[in-house]
Amino acid sequence: MRGWVCVLTTPDDGELPDDPRDAQAKVEAAHAAEREAYDAKTDAQEASELAPKKKRKKSTLPAARTMDECRKRGWIAGIVERRIPFPRPRGTTLDLFGVIDIIALDMAAPVGRRTVGIQATTGNGGRHADHRAKILAESRARDWLEAGNRLELWSWAKQGSAGKRKLWTLRVETFTVDDWRST
Question: pTM here?
Answer without folding.
Answer: 0.66
